[in-house]
Amino acid sequence: MSHRSRRFIVARHGETDFNRERRVQGTSNESVLTDKGVSQAKALGVYISKRGTVARTFCSPLSRCRQSYAEISGICAANNNPLPDPTILDNLEEIDLKEWQGRLRNDIMIEDKTNWDIFRANPCDLRLQNGTFAPVLDCFERAISNWNVIRSDAASNSADVTFIMCHGAIGQCMLLQALGLDKKEYGKSRGYALDNCECFEVEFESDESEYSSRWRRIDSSQTASGWKSTYASQLVATTLITCR
After folding, report:
1. With a threshold of 0.70, does the pTM exceed it?
2. CA angle in degrees (0–180, nearest 5) for 112-18-170
């Protein structure tokens, strides 16, 4: 293992027709990028192409991420900074929302109000599929697995920068895990959420570091926030928990 720092860029796909319709996507593979989503992905590609060499890339197997990656990769190639072919990682799929998938959010709010209210108030308590499946807990466990695979790959390949194309919920779970925050923080702050083609940059001081040292977000206009220390984020989260 190396003591050199490594950076990971975790991005959400561009807008899809399901996003526009406010239809739940989850692990379904039916949605496609809208024209706006294609434009968002190309704009993110401009940002990524200016980040220097990206040594390794990973992508969700779902088509909306593959489409987004293709647009980003095309822009990077045009700007003489091509991306490597992505490793398709199944655990980068979006949160599995079972019987909600493909349905309009407004319909779920009415037809499954009890579960929807739980999901909005305390997402970790949500149980679907007749109470047998916990979507957020499953997603968080997959986030831990993803980091194990991706960080090990970066160490093995001496990759200073790795790009990860995924989804909103799994991206949020990966950020929380990298910051050492509890899964119960999922859905509690917009500061940890990803809109279409937004991304987080997360930096680990060494391959031995359990958690990241600092992070920042890049919004859909490719404006980067200032770097935040992981320790400061943990303190903020602890304060918010105390106040709830």
Report:
1. yes
2. 80
Q: How many CB atoms lie within 10 A of CB 97?
A: 24
The rounded distance, in Å, linking the Cα atoms of 106 and 212 is 37
Residue with the two structure tokens 């949605």: 31
Phi-psi region of 36 (alpha: psi -120 to 50; beta: other; left: phi over 0): alpha
d(CA 61, CA 89): 7
- Specify whether the CB–CB gap between 93 and 174 falls below 8 A: no
DSSP state at residue 164: E
Radius of gyration of the chain, Cα coordinates, nearest whole angstrom: 18
The rounded average pLDDT for each run of 10 residues, N- to C-terminus, in the chain (244 residues) is 84 98 98 98 96 95 98 98 97 98 98 98 98 98 98 95 98 97 95 96 96 95 92 64 46
| Helix axes of 63-78 and 35-49: crossing angle, nearest 10 degrees | 50
* End-to-end Cα spacing for the chain: 40
- Rounded Cα–Cα distance for residues 143 and 177 (Å): 7
Say which residue the tokens 């700007």 belong to.
79
Q: Which residues contact 14 (CB under 8 A, 6 or more apart)?
A: 33, 34, 36, 37, 38, 39, 40, 41, 44, 64, 67, 68, 71, 196, 197
